[in-house]
Every structure is written in C-alpha cells, then in structure tokens.
Amino acid sequence: MDVLNQVKTIVKQAITEAVTAAGIIDAAQMPEITLEVPKDKAHGDFATNVAMQLTRIAKQNPRQIAEQIIANLQKEKAYIASADIAGPGFINFKMNKVYLYPLIAEVAEQGSRYGAINVGQGLKVQVEFVSANPTGSLHLGHARGAAVGDALCNVLDLAGYDVSREYYINDAGNQVLNLAKSIEARYLQALGQDAEMPEDGYFGEDIKGFAAELAADKGDSLLSLSEEERRSYFRTYGLEKELDKIKRDLGRFGVQFDHWFSETSIYEDNLIPGVLQELRDNGHVYEEDGATWLNTTPLGDDKNRVLIKNDGSFTYLTPDIAYHRNKFERGYDRLINIWGADHHGYIPRMKAAMTALGFEADRLVVLIAQMVSLFQNGEKVKMSKRTGKAVTMEDLMDEVGVDPIRYFFTMRSMDSHLDFDMDLAVSQSNENPVFYVQYAHARICSIYRQAAEQGIEILPLEQVDLSRLTAEAEFDLLRKIGELPEEVAVAAEQYAPHRLIRYVYELASQFHSYYKGHYVITDDAALTQARLALLGALRTTLANVLRVVGVSAPERM
RNA sequence: GUCCCAGUAGCUCAGCAGGAUAGAGCAUACGCCUUCUAAGCGUACGGUCGGGGGUUCGAAUCCCUCCUGGGACGCCA
C-alpha cells in the first residue's frame, strides 16, 4: 500500500477506536469512514464527515458527536497534530508532517512505476480503439480516440489491470469495394482518362496519391486486366497502402497496438456460422421478409436487427458479433470499446447480442468520445467528406507536433465536445498548458545540472536529513505527490484519463510557485540535499504522468 | 417523435457513487527578472452552476419536467 493510504488507514483506525471508546455506537454499527483531503487547505490535511453520518444512529447532533470523538482520540500514534470541529460537523485533522517524508523514498524505489496501485488485480482488459476503416487517412476524431484510448490503457496498466490494445480492421465490407473503385477512378484519371468517382467513393488526397504512384509505376498496364482482376488488385493495393499509412501515423503518435484484428480473418476462420447457430439455439433469431433477424428488443434495444439481408449477405453487425465473441473467447474479463459519438446508437444492439450469447452485458464497456471541432484563426474549420477536404492527423502532427495534440485531446472529458484550437496548440507561450507542464520538468532537470556544475554530489537518501523540509510549499508538494496512486485508481475506475492531466498541471503549478519562492541550491548543504531529494521525487512524478498521457518530458527547453 | 452527450465566470473547461465560502486556464487591470530557465511568479476583477419543481441536515452533483445546442435513429459501415 502506498504511503498516503497507510496513513489514512491509521487515522481511520484511530477514529473508529475513538467512536467506540466514547460509547457513541457499537463497533458493529460503524459505517465506512471516508477520509478526504479537503479542497481548502485551511481545513487541514484530512477531514471526515463521520460525525454527520452517525447523526441518525446515535440520535445526537453532529457537533456533539464530533466533540466526543475528538475527546477520545489517540492523536500521537496516528500522526494527528490537532483535530477540530468545523462547519456542520466535519472533523478536520492537522497532521504532524513527518508522515510525508517517507514518500520521497517510496518514489525513488518505485521509479517509473510510482503511481501504480493495484486496484485492477490483474483483471484482463482489452481496449479496442481507433479502428478506423482503412479507406482514408486518420482525421481529428481518430486522433482523439487514439490519444484517449492509449492514455486510458496506460492508466489501467498502472492501476494493476492486464491491458491489451487492439485495432479492428474493417477490411471486408462494401467500403473496401468502394475503396477499390475509388482508386481505379483516380488511376484512370492519372492516366488522363475520363473517369467518374463512385457515388460512395473516397475523395481523400491519399487515394489520389496512391493512384498516381500506380500510374507512374505500372503505366497503363493494369488496363489490360479484366475488371474483376483489376478491382481485386486495387483492393489489395489500397488496403495495404491505407493500413501502412494508419500504422505509420499511429506509430508517430506514440500508440502501439498489441493486436491488429482483421475482419477478413473472421470469414477466413469461418467464425460466423457458429455464432449464428448459437444465437439460433438460444432462441434469439427469426426469419422475416426474406431476412434473418436478431431479436434484440427484449434485451434492451429499441428495434430488432437484421443479421442476414434478403440478398444473403451479412450486415455489418454479424461479423462484429462474431468478433466480440472471439474477444471473450480469447480470455478477456472485460472489453472496452472506444467509439465516436456517431456510433452511440450501436451500443444497445451489441450489448444485446452479447447477452444473447450468454455473456454478461456489463463485461462490455463502450465509451463514447464526443466530436472534435477544429478552430483556426478563431474560426471553425469546415470539413467535407465529399471533397476530401479535411485536416488529417498527419497534417496536425506536422503543424503542431505530437505533444500538444496528445495533451489537448486527453485534457477534456470524453463526454465533452472538444474544440481544438490550432493557434493555441502551436503557440509557445504561457497560454499553452503543455509547455507549462513540460517546463516544470525541464526546470528541475536544469537545477540538477546546475548542482552538478557546482560540484554538489547527490547523497544517497539515507544520508539526507528530510526533516529540513519544513516549508509549507514543500509539504504541499509532498502531499500532492502522494496523491498520485489514488488519482490513478479513480482515473482507472471512471475511465477518465483527463483527470491525470488536471493532476499533472496542478503539480507543475505548485512547483513553479515553489521555485519562485525557494532556492534549492543554497549555502546550507543539508538543506540543499533535502530539497534536491524532494525535487527528485517530483521529477519522477511529473515524468510518470506525462508518460501515461503520451507527452514527452524534456530535460531542457 | 425516440435515444445519447452537453449547457457552470467574457471564452475554453474541471468539479457531478451529495458535503464546508463552486474551481482552473485564457482574456482584462496592476505588480515581479542583482543567484537554480520570466515558456515563470503574485494581486485584483469576474457566477441566478440553462429554467422550474422535488428528495434531505445539506444539491452544480440524485429524481421529474421544460428549454437550447450537438449527435444518433439503414437489410450502410
């Protein structure tokens, strides 16, 4: 258990003992004690509302109860310096700050794993995200999914889950035929022929590029193939090109998937008949109007869904059900899908399908990332699918760099529509929070460099007198550092990686303020060592959180 | 019409398994570089938490209802 939780446990124990010693209630009636860090520092290091919770059981008013608890509190052994009643009946604890010092050693020992907390207990979780169709370049929405998904995976990993990242490649449906037709049309155009783009074609610049390459490499030789052969050629060629591009973009973005799962493999491995049979056996399938339906309405969906169209082909849903069953069969305890807001209506039918297959619906968690709007020069940038005019993820990385994108896209709650301000992201000014946090890290590194230049040797922690850290700002920093494991736990449980951006920003802010008011390198050698030790823990903490959200931690700026 | 998300300071957003005087950044105004990076620090200004009901010791947070904005409602993927 981490240092802060140990202390909290001790304080809770002391409270429980005080309550029973005062004879307020029996130990058996004792509610779960919540000990929180008050928002307002004036309210002490910890606060509890236990006196208010006991009001009903003890039939006394909360302030009376609080008084009795305080009177019976064994303070010393729980590091409590003072306990006071406040407001409607809160008990505020001021702690003897020595409880904070062991944090520095804890961070040093855990290093890049500091912040880890085992709430996941090795539960096998698979996170499927991005999964953009291989029919065009990744755009802003995909970038958001990638940033949030990867950060979430890192958070879950730190929280003790066994995490696997997966990308589902939709390489089997109609859209791939459209891709082939689109490339064909662009190829013909590149050869100077008149060719119309298909109705549902893909108009992206990437496809023009691929077609132009082909025209340059192969000349008009592909024209001699039959239409079928040619389509097949364009299909394979297009998929390979698009997938390459996607992998390249995501790699550059710092996202590595463990599995790339191909929809085509579902057909190759013949997974669908078994799934259909199972759904039939479970009594969820019926025939109507020449089609085969899944009866999802009794399972929470608002209408039933077609599995096999009356032309004999599958809908998108059918292989997707097979895919999700396959995921469970691979042994994952929980599946997390991150989808764009435009797919939200798809959730009930997939959950219904899982229920129909006998899986608990709760084991499938679908997170929705809301839309992204791009602003440039103060105006919303219009995107058009029809003309292929869209800012791609690649464009964005070229223009603003990976760090600001990852920071900005992770910064907001997934539920929130996100306005991405290009001008702010590229600005190297105090308006830009990415640099603010990175700068804190760089500043600490700079202090270490400075110390080295002055010939100051960093002593091993055992030889450092941490009790020299007595400034309020130093206690604040330590407390904040100590909160990381709890932050990680909450971020993991709520699937809310944006909380860590908040956290790291606040930590950086506390440091900048401290930096202004306190010199680390002073004539007092022991104090210098103590402060360097504190900064060491701080630097590790900043770097760890930045790594979780996929932002670099530069040593100088 | 049904479903989902959002509505909190001038702007962008946190806070929402109920807790103390609702926070942050930006913007605005005014200060701070003679020792470790001013990509920094500090002070001030700024609010009917969309409206209205309810639940209770206590509601931005939970419930109901209405309004506004966005998205989804295919035998497309």
TrEMBL record:
Keywords: Aminoacyl-tRNA synthetase, ATP-binding, Cytoplasm, Ligase, Nucleotide-binding, Protein biosynthesis. Its main location: cytoplasm. It is an enzyme of class 6 (ligase). GO terms for molecular function: arginine-tRNA ligase activity; ATP binding. Residues 437-557 form the DALR anticodon binding domain. CDD domains: Anticodon_Ia_Arg, ArgRS_core. One of its GO terms (cellular component) is cytoplasm. A motif ('HIGH' region) lies at residues 132-142. It is found in: Cytoplasm. It comes from the Bacteria. Residues 5-95 form the Arginyl tRNA synthetase N-terminal domain. Its EC number is 6.1.1.19. One of its GO terms (biological process) is arginyl-tRNA aminoacylation. Transmembrane segments: none annotated. InterPro entries: aa-tRNA-synth_I_CS, Arg-tRNA-ligase, Arg-tRNA-synth_N, Arg-tRNA-synth_N_sf, ArgRS_core, DALR_anticod-bd, Rossmann-like_a/b/a_fold, tRNAsynth_Ia_anticodon-bd. NCBIfam families: argS. Belongs to the class-I aminoacyl-tRNA synthetase family. This is Arginine--tRNA ligase. It comes from Paenibacillus sedimenti. The gene is argS.
